[in-house]
Amino acid sequence: MDLLQVGLSQGINGGVYHDKQLNVHTAELILVSAHVAASKEFFNYLTCDGMRGQLARVFIDKAHQIVITVQALDRESWSCVALDGELCSNCKKAAEIPFQLSIADFPQLDKPLVPSNPLNPLSELVSITVDTHTALCEQISAGECQLMLLKHILDSAQANTCLDCWFTESIEDILESK
Question: Which domain of life is it from (predicted)?
C-alpha cells in the first residue's frame, strides 16, 4: 500500500484491484497481489476492451505486488524480475501473465539522452550525466566563441568600404603582430 499512498500523494488516481472505491475509468495506478494477478479472472480483466487501451505497464515492486500503471511513472522495481535473479513463486505466477513487463524494459524518460561522444552525434545515446553535460557545455561554449569571432570579422569587413583594402589591412596587422 506504500506505493499507492505515494501515488495518491502526488495526485495519481489509483487503488487496489477489486476495491469498491477504485474507479477503473480514471485510475492511473492499480495494485493487485501476485496470486490474484496470475488468475484467469485478472487476465480477462486486463484483456477486456476497456482496459487494453489504457494499459501502459505492469511491474513487480519489492513487496511482489503487481502494479499496473496506465500513465508513465518514474519508479524503480526491486524484484526478482528487475534484478534478473531466480524467480520466487509469486514472480513465477506473475510471469504467466502475457502482459508482464519489467520496469527495466522501459527507458527512463525523465532523463534526456545525449550522444556518448559529444563530438560524434552518431555515437550511442546515453542518459545525460555530469560528464556528458560538461562536455556539451564546453562544446557549446567553444562554438559560441567561434561565432563571436566570426561576427567580429564580419563587422570589421562590413565597416570597411573596400573588401580588398580590408583584407590587405588584416594581413598587415597579422604580420605586424608576429
Answer: Eukaryota
